[in-house]
Sequence to fold (423 residues):
Amino acid sequence: MLTCLALMVSTSLLGATALEAVPVTDADAPTGMIEIRGVGAGEFDAALWQGGMLHLLPDERHPFLEPRPGRFRNIYAPSIVKLPEGWRIFYGGFDGIETGNDFIYQVDTPDFMSFGERHTVISHGDFIHVCNVNAFRNPDGSFEMMCTVYPDPGGNNKPGYFSSPDGETWNDSPMPYHATLDDLVAIEGYEDYEGADINGMNVLLREGDKRRIYHNDFHNMGTVFRATGTDGQHFEFEQGVLETPYFVNDVKVFQDGGQDWYLMGLHRNTQGLWYSLSNDGLEFEPTQELLTPLGDEDNYIVAIGWVREGNQILGVLYGAGAVPVLNENRIFARWLQHRVVFEAEDGTRYEAESSYGPERQRFALPTEGPVSGVFHVYAEDGETPVGEPVPATLTPGEVWEIRSRLEIPTSWGCIPARPTEDG
Fold:
């Protein structure tokens, strides 16, 4: 008897993949809904970002994170750090506290669906406020962050630098660490640095043994600047990197086409977020609009933090509020996802208008079902088809997953295995 071997081959060798829709039998969607999983963003695609075609779906939890109960409730400035077991979201503001002083907080999440206990990381200490955090985790498990502290001896906002070997002890002190004047950052060569007002526009980026700071200055508007140092606290001014009315708030580096791509996120304390790209981190392309408010809840946007996993950008968290005085902010989320449209046999099309975390979408199916049709799947630009339409029969309350499967050409035929004992 002749048997055939199952082959394990690279998709790059096959040159073709196909999609399939698979029911998830151990999960349920809300009543009257269909949930689609496996729709998160793929590898960073520079052309997609340069073209400005981004299928960003708002999370249905709007806002994504609320402040804890208490007298002062105003959280924003999210900075998202990948952990081996999930992510850590750092953020600043008043998280249900009894005084109007900004602190830095953190909360861990395995998947952006559930969240652990919140902790205070940095206290304002010698300052009135410490906020606008931008953080990262090093390969050895240590953490570094740049924050805005106010006031410096001259009465201005300045960056402060904080580090931790394990995420528990910061600047040699158990959480919460109380910030001091010794934590202030110095930038040599920047004209009148003592008089600079750097508030909500301080980004720390690690490249090898170099640390970069990207910043604006309220007393020198219209330019994003860069400086470089080695210890996170002492920097040498380099140059302006982008002429823009917007304020830098996050910079991450991705790879595509054998090149580095610096992705800068910017805000303006107004109705929008923007981004800019660069191949060297010193000269950035003109800004493009990333998103605008969805309604009153996020009408005034004050901060942006990229969500990344390896070389994928999953989406963005941002701080925003309903009032221009910016004291009622919450944290909102939008996820970069494939666009999925279900087309029923009668031609009716169903499509999600919101997401549920980075990998899921939901849409209403207003019938008892079942409904037969096909899934149309598009890339993260929302327009480019991915594979052929996928047939499925849906019943409200079901969860489905979109997967890739290999298409092995039939001309390959059967590869004989060794004969079995029965011939």
In short: Residues 1-16, 407-423 have pLDDT under 50 and may be disordered. The first strand starts at residue 17 and ends at 23.
